[in-house]
Specification:
The chain is of the alpha/beta class. It has a domain of about 240 residues: TIM Barrel, CATH 3.20.20. The chain is built from 19 helices and 12 strands. The strands form 2 sheets. Strands 4, 5, 6, 7, 8, 9, 10, 11 and 12 form a 9-stranded mixed beta sheet that branches. Helix 7 packs parallel to helix 17, helix 10 runs antiparallel to helix 17 and helix 13 packs parallel to helix 14. The relative contact order is 0.14. It catalyses: L-fuconate = 2-dehydro-3-deoxy-L-fuconate + H2O.
Length: about 425
Amino acid sequence: MSRIVGFETFDVRFPTSRELDGSDAMNPDPDYSAAYLILRTDAEDGLSGHGFTFTIGRGNDVQVAAIEALREHVLGRDVEEVCADPGIVNRALIGDSQLRWLGPEKGVMHMAIGAVVNAIWDLAAKRAGVPLWKLLADADPRWLVSQVDFRYLTDALTPEEALEMLRRGKDGAAARETSLRAEGYPAYTTSPGWLGYSDEKLTRLAHEAVAAGFTQIKLKVGADLADDVRRCRAARAAVGPDVRMAIDANQRWNVGEAIEWVKALAEFDVYWIEEPTSPDDVLGHAAIRGAVAPVKVATGEHVQNRIIFKQLLQAEAIDFVQLDAARVGGVNENLAILLLAAKFGVPVCPHAGGVGLCELVQHLSMFDFVALSGSRTDRVVEYVDHLHEHFVTPTVVTGGAYQTPTTPGFSAEMFPATLEAYSFPDGSFWRADRGEV
């Protein structure tokens, strides 16, 4: 019997704020960061599980400390047992009554649980010899249902309904997998639209996005309306009338302000408004959606758990679910969110900015297409062209589509050299940055 014997954490930070990469109205100077975890075992195969949660700089050390608080729940566990049933770890971490008080099921502690749970899934997929999307898509529907925590969901989604949807998802799955491998999964890009970029850079990158095959781009908005009008006009001129253009306020507005602002930008044929107000304001999103149609409403990257997603769907408050691979409690909770979205017939368009999120969420969307929703219509995964070179199996996007991962695992593993160089504050990059030898 092999056991988990190593639990290594890293505070990894990249200085993206210096080029204003990732800048938006709420977060003007993000340093893309990862609270990173490696689970090591004493198994002869030498495989390890990698997971992380994404932050934007200050506080990443707090997130690492939260992951460290889960160490004793994981060390010593039977590798075969947890890989056969990752829900064991998910239930144990969420069920710690004293740590639960720090949420419950939200915030820094819940994100830490997501990092650990995702590392377990990475290890499970590696041991199975398949990429995570394939592990999920081939799984027995009853087993998948067993991985989902239905507490607080059964007024909207029961285990029986979930089982039926997953059983239906088996019909035609083989043909969809063949199509996925041949065509990939649709992507859109935010790379032209960071708020701190000049109009010239925005225009150049928008032209490049269209040339690269993207049929949707996204712009950050919300700091100054006159600037947003000018930037949206420039972007629309650059991409032409046939490319979708979404906008993202990153929670900047009150409800009334959001409605007025979106209406002022609607002349540029805006496809969706993302995070128009607080991610916790279900009724606010519903009011905005009702007022700004035909502009659609999307949110989810900061939605803290499956319960808020349930309410957003029940209230008909959003047109797109934007789940995040690392904001909630990992793969298990994201399975619940995917099932809820399928039940309500709302497309899932994951958030994938930051560091490593593109690598993770591609697996969730590909599983959803092959074995749950069965559709790529009106579904796109965000793509941001930053920091992929630090991953052993980086995301590949060509022709405006994510190419299907074939390497076993969750695509979460960073190179050891990256962990050494960018660990904060004593990695070699940060020491050199301070002028130290």
